[in-house]
Structure formats: C-alpha cells, structure tokens
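Hello forum,

I keep getting stuck at the same step: I have a sequence, I want structure tokens, and every attempt I make locally crashes halfway through. Rather than fight my setup again tonight, could one of you with a working pipeline run this one for me? It's a single chain of 337 residues.
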Amino acid sequence: MTHATASTLPAETAGKPPKSARYWLLRLLALALLLGSCGYFLFHLWDNLHELPPIQWGGYAVLVIGVAVLGALSSVPLIALMWQMLLRDQGVVLPYRQALQIIAVSQMGKYLPGNVGHFAGRVLLGSQAGVPAGKTIATMAMETFWVLGISGIFAVAALLFYVNDLHEGLVDTSHPGYLAALAAFMLVSPFVAVRLVNRLLPGLSRKLGRGQLIAEPRLVTAVMVAGLIAFSFVVLGSVVELLASELFGHPEIDWLQMVLLYTVAWTAGFLVPGSPGGLGVREALMIKLMGPAIGLEIALGVSLVMRLTSMGADALAFGLGLLFRPQQNEPLDPDVD
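Reply #2:
Ran it on my machine without issues. Output:
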C-alpha cells in the first residue's frame, strides 16, 4: 500500500528551486490562459449582447448566479472523491483533502489548447504528492470511460424522449440502439481493459502499476463512481434549468429535458479535441438542442451565462486550491507493501 502525504506538495520553502519554478510557471500559465479564455468569451458575449433577453438585475438575480456558480463548483469535490476511491483500489491511499486540492488546481488545465491539460496537471501534482504517475493515468482512463458511459446513457434518453420531437428528422430510430450499446460497452470497458492489458501487456501494466499489475476496480467502486458522475450531470443540468426559469424568466421548463440535453452538449464539448473546456462546442449545441424548447434567445443567454458560471467556478476552485494547499513539513517516505 502506497501512502501519499501532504508533505510532497510544493510549498514556500527553498528546497528545490527548479521544481518550484516550474510549478509556479504552470500556475501562472494556467491563470493567463484562463484570463485569455474569459476575454475571448466576453468579446463574443458583447458582440451578441443585442440578442440576449433582458435580465432583471437585483439581489435575486445575483443570488441565482451565485447558486449557479456553486452548482458548477460541485463537480470538483465529486471528481476528487471519485479519484480517491479509484486510487484506493490501486493500493494508493491519498487523503481526501489532498485529492481535492490537486483536482481544484489541475482543473484549470482544461483551458489549455487540446483540452487535456487538466489530466496532465493531475499527473504532475499527483506525482509531487507521492502518487505514481502510472496509477494516476490508469485511474483517469477508468474515470473517462465511465464518464462517457454515463453520458451516453443520458444521451440515449435525450434522443428517445426529446431530441426527435424537437428536431424531427435529426435522428432515426437506429441511433439510440447503437448509442446504448456503446454506452454499455463504456461502462464495462475499465474491467475489460485492465484484464487485457494485464494479460497481453504485463510489462506495461507493471510499469503503470509501479512494479505491480494494474488492479481491477472493485464493483462497489464502479457503482459509486458511476453514481457520482450521474449526480454531477444532474446538478449541472439543474443549474441550466435554474438559469432558464429564474434568471431569464421562462415560464415552463422541463427539468429532465434540460438535464439530458445539457449532458449531450457537455459530452460533445468534452470529446472535441482542441476545444479548451469545450468552449464554443458546448454552447453551440446547447443553442441547437434547447432552442426549440425554450426559445433561441433564452437558449443563447443560458449558454453564455452557463459558460461564465463554469469559468467562475473553475477560477474559484483554483484560488481555493492554492490558498489551502497542504504545507511541506518533511520529505516523503512512502511505505510500499
């Protein structure tokens, strides 16, 4: 069992100047990219401001936006909990507070070109915390498969119950079946992939597992991770419904419809390479899918405000992650059984 402790995170000591310099450089780069992304988005927001429905600004509107930011922020502690459980199945014990801090800071990396910087950041910060890089990569792969599996199930429901009615002819009856099969495959793929790698590529498996074969995730872990992913999509979809009904005043909102359609848009932004944080892709699909249900203007307003709240949540998580990072007390002395 490998024990990762807070002693390996960077701190304000002069122990290793080169590593500390690289670490601060990554932080500054992530912050610069966030500010650049915000500027780019605000430019387009201003360019389309005349198409937005009016917002009755006041204390209630500020409260709604604050709740939306907290809803978007909820993904960070959920991801940290999932990662901690998956690491435990690999024999790595990482304190939840430390996992939370790593996720909070590394999430900023998704605004890097390529939409994979948050994964690289987790590997880097995890390694500095004593988590073997190979095991972080393995657990992130499992997490990604389950994200795609759960989002695929949501997408099947959206296609069956909403998309075909809102966009006649956009899909045919065969698509949900194929998508359902793909979603089911994604749910079981972590188990299949681990067995195949261990059997066919044992050398690679031991390299990733730091001398040991990669362990299959426990069934209880799989169920809990899948449940947390589904809950995260429900929370984000609820934020979309909140913005449409309370901020933009749409009188009739189908909550389940907003949850499912937003999940489809989120997944598209997640899958398209080169789109930092799904920027542009997610909003375009939200407008396309939700426009017939809530009106084009409100769909545009919700997509723009949702992006701003998401960026605000990421910036808040990044700041809190830096503020409450564990301090370095003593060198890491991992106990490997």
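The radius of gyration is 21 Å. If your local run keeps crashing, start a new thread with the error log.
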